[in-house]
Amino acid sequence: MSLFSKSLLILAVYAAINDAQVVDDEGCETLQTEVRITKDEYDELTRLRRTCSGEISVSKCEGFCNSRMQPSIVTTTGFSKECYCCRESYLKERPVILSQCYDADGIRLIGTDDETMEIKIREPAECKCIKCNDLAR
């Protein structure tokens, strides 16, 4: 009788874990956010030439992902767990314009070639649930 009750308990735990194995990409999405970027530019003698900044709209990955767990006879705990994180598939590079530029004395540069600065940023693209072990790049 005791052996029978233990078998039922293991079966109930397995059924509960089996239901939680689905990976949910719907909770992970690419969102837009505003960030302030500041970039300093130096001359050949490493003196500050100008500082430029601007509010830039960039994408970010945000959300949640379900992890997978299943019974395992190989592991010491008796369970094998796969963790999933909301991350980008890759980073895409794009140019942005910083439109508020100031010289080394803090005077705003207007009407010159130096009044704006173009820089390149890398931002997340195609956010989705990715296995946490695969995050190292």
UniProtKB/TrEMBL annotation:
GO terms for biological process: G protein-coupled receptor signaling pathway. Keywords: Signal. InterPro entries: Bursicon_suB, Cystine-knot_cytokine. GO terms for molecular function: G protein-coupled receptor binding; neuropeptide hormone activity. PANTHER family: PARTNER OF BURSICON (PTHR41151:SF1). It comes from Harpegnathos saltator. Residues 1-20 form the signal peptide. It comes from the Eukaryota. This is Partner of bursicon. GO terms for cellular component: bursicon neuropeptide hormone complex. The lineage of its organism: Eukaryota, Metazoa, Ecdysozoa, Arthropoda, Hexapoda.
